[in-house]
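Hi W.,

Here's what went into the run:
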Amino acid sequence: METKATPAFRKTTETFTPGARTLAQPYFVSTDVFVQEQERIFCTQWLCAGHQSQLAKSGDFFTQEVAGESLIIVRDRRGTIHGFYNVCRHRGTRMCEEQHGHFQAIQCPYHAWTYSLDGQLIGAPDMDTVEGFDKANHSLHAVGLALWEGFIFVNLAKGPTPLESVFAPLAGKFTHWNLPRLRSVKRVDYDVRANWKLIFQNYSECYHCPLVHPTLSKLTPYDAAENDLFEGPFLGGFMPITKGSSLTMSGNACALPVGDIKAEDHHRVFYYSIFPNLLLSLHPDYVMVHQLWPRSSDRTLIRCDWFFHPDAFDRPDFRPDDAIEFWDTTNKQDWRVCELSQQGIASRAYQPGPYSPRESIPAAWDREYLRVLGE
Amino acid sequence: METKATPAFRKTTETFTPGARTLAQPYFVSTDVFVQEQERIFCTQWLCAGHQSQLAKSGDFFTQEVAGESLIIVRDRRGTIHGFYNVCRHRGTRMCEEQHGHFQAIQCPYHAWTYSLDGQLIGAPDMDTVEGFDKANHSLHAVGLALWEGFIFVNLAKGPTPLESVFAPLAGKFTHWNLPRLRSVKRVDYDVRANWKLIFQNYSECYHCPLVHPTLSKLTPYDAAENDLFEGPFLGGFMPITKGSSLTMSGNACALPVGDIKAEDHHRVFYYSIFPNLLLSLHPDYVMVHQLWPRSSDRTLIRCDWFFHPDAFDRPDFRPDDAIEFWDTTNKQDWRVCELSQQGIASRAYQPGPYSPRESIPAAWDREYLRVLGE
Amino acid sequence: METKATPAFRKTTETFTPGARTLAQPYFVSTDVFVQEQERIFCTQWLCAGHQSQLAKSGDFFTQEVAGESLIIVRDRRGTIHGFYNVCRHRGTRMCEEQHGHFQAIQCPYHAWTYSLDGQLIGAPDMDTVEGFDKANHSLHAVGLALWEGFIFVNLAKGPTPLESVFAPLAGKFTHWNLPRLRSVKRVDYDVRANWKLIFQNYSECYHCPLVHPTLSKLTPYDAAENDLFEGPFLGGFMPITKGSSLTMSGNACALPVGDIKAEDHHRVFYYSIFPNLLLSLHPDYVMVHQLWPRSSDRTLIRCDWFFHPDAFDRPDFRPDDAIEFWDTTNKQDWRVCELSQQGIASRAYQPGPYSPRESIPAAWDREYLRVLGE
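Here's what came out:
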């Protein structure tokens, strides 16, 4: 893992596999493939569902839809964070409609069955006379939950590979950015009419930047990506910021540094994709985080947060909108071309096309995807 | 039948079957099950589609969608009520778009083929020269239609069991409420995103009343139901009104008594479910009637009428809004928890849960449903 | 072909086939049938997609959705009109979202791959270093395209029967109407909730005119159709205009004659259906053109244009609204009854009904449809 402290960056073009082509049409349009993905990927892998800062106090909760399931993520009285299916054990009622809030206990609004914050059934009116009924057998159904760098990951599988071993290759890599302590100042949900894989493929190359992102291209040259992770579930590297000191509308930093950023990284933005649903964009002064939630073969919910150092919030030089506006504009430019790709790929005329040398990371992402899908 | 005059009421808890559980997930979410239900239940059983008071004069009609079919219900010149598929025998055109109105004859708006009020083809321009064409072979397609206590029932089956024999167990039971003479003062259609069975299960227990219906619970204690019909297609009984004299916003009666209500019933509300699509809620001063029309596995149209004695309408003490507002509020509280149940039951975490002793009628309803479905 | 100059018109009733009945229900409601139609008809036949006047200059283009495919129709530098799938050969992106406009070249907005107006790949950034990559192998995918009487026809089949031989039976028939020179003054898109075949069947008879079109029926008697094409892919004839001199709100001609109209045709309107997606309605002073684009078994996009002589546009007596309003009203009357037919035919009670003697052309259209469908 120590090698990560001094990564061996490679120019994008070095990793090009001649002959690599885009995925075949069914991967983007088939409902069967979508169902397989949900089963084999989104029900087996660790998925980022939020950040521990969203649950400051015991009883704080939020709900999150994961692979079609509504989950309750809640911090219990001892401070432990749990994930539960949002389903009462009595008649199956969805208990909580709010996106976030605070519980004393988790009570079903239908017949008042009540659960403690760690999921134990503690109240069930009139059930005490029922022969053989035991509250202990009616706890809420839990999901796997673990933390990584302050982010909350859930896993719907029974007995999944522990998160620590999955994420071992990244150990220590992000320490400088101080991720566990950061707080989001802004969240935007984007409803994008494109397959989720197109979002990853778009994120993973800057070949499209000149035409799609004229403003971004002025700050960071499209052909200057240097990647240190180029195969497997974690992919990416940095791009130099050649003009200004951050990716903002003004070109200036808009907040305190998020952490103990190394001198050489003060003019770099790091882009990493964490298979299968997380994008980490690390700037000197803020971290943008995308969660990807596939809704169907041609629709993806993208949840985007802008994280800053907690000490930055109360300072007079805190201008988060400078970063938010920059990326909200850039995000929408990306979603538009992803939607155009979805439309074109659905044509009977579509055939897998050749990746260019600047698209080695999308090609690597496709390989990892196919590996996990089991094909 | 005479036993019905002095029914043997049983406390809900007496009929509890230990171990009864809610239905499995497919019954609520599967399109296959929905199609089976439409074929085996809604195309074979007698379904309440309205009340004879809606068709005061010969030529009066209304249309009703039944199991995906648009039907015309019309009173002919001799006073007989008929039900016809809303389909012209020429080119299959839906003839009537209005929800209700008055016909001289039934004329297709496309090519003017014209039918008498009893369905005979009486006009077909230019068809007289067609060899072998006989108007007598082109009558409207009729559906089974019969009256019970003034309500209009239809049956799409060929040769269904006569309504009188199906409803024989209820003979004389509702005479006191004067149902054939009542008239609806208000109709509300609710589009509910829940399986139709959840509506029955919700209607059939008051275990949910404390949390869901705070106002109702003040007038009628949730644990005081006494049922006289606890197995089969007809289920229910009464709940005492312990505060006030009817279920209204004011707590007062809002109209003349609907019939010759017995003294002991002046502070009771009777709730009966009539399999598979009717709910009868009989108060001293009004009768609320729900028709249930499943639209898909997760959507139900609920048509609710408030019926009053015809002599009540012109009296200064007639305040139907007092009842309408009470139940419109209560209905919406119910639909919300039904929709929450639909959402939760769709989860992979849902498992059939234990019915409480206060849910013996839902359990009985489930048994009857499974019997008719043939499982 | 010469016989077409003096067609042998037959009264509609002469061609009646006793016993002809409307098509069975699946032809109107089945998704399987719809898919078969798309494959066997809309992907094999020549389809009218517009008129050459829409592409006045080199570089002018419009896009058209055909059988679920977005096509780019563009005039190249030598004046030739081409049809291309709107799909970039790189990553499959839909390149053009505009409905019409002007290209210098066709450039994909994602990664700037660029094609000449005749479809050759002329720019692909960073691809020159890719071993084995040849621009010549990455031209846009073309579709069959041909002109008939100024109308642009496309064909998705590989190696389709040449348009000239398909349309040979119509050679010279429409010369008088000057179709290649006409220009559309107005386009209206109608989104009709009916199967596309119902539109043809509606267009092909005036049996419905008395009830559906009271205004039209005053100008042109419903029972006076005389057809000269009564079997095969091209069907129709004329109806006399017995009151006024054109089909307009005022009853007067609203523009210069479209061509060298014969004296006897100055009080006639000619209606022809061109299988499978074109309706031609030729009046002395204008030509109405309907393109039919099936969207699903129960939905059709109908694109309607009103064409006039180009010299008419700048004259003070040019009143195209007189014609547009007339037919817009009449069109909507037709679409309404088509939608009612769709609804009724979906009923389980629908059975094929008897065509009247005035519906010989719909019956002939059905025969041709079944022949092409291969049943």
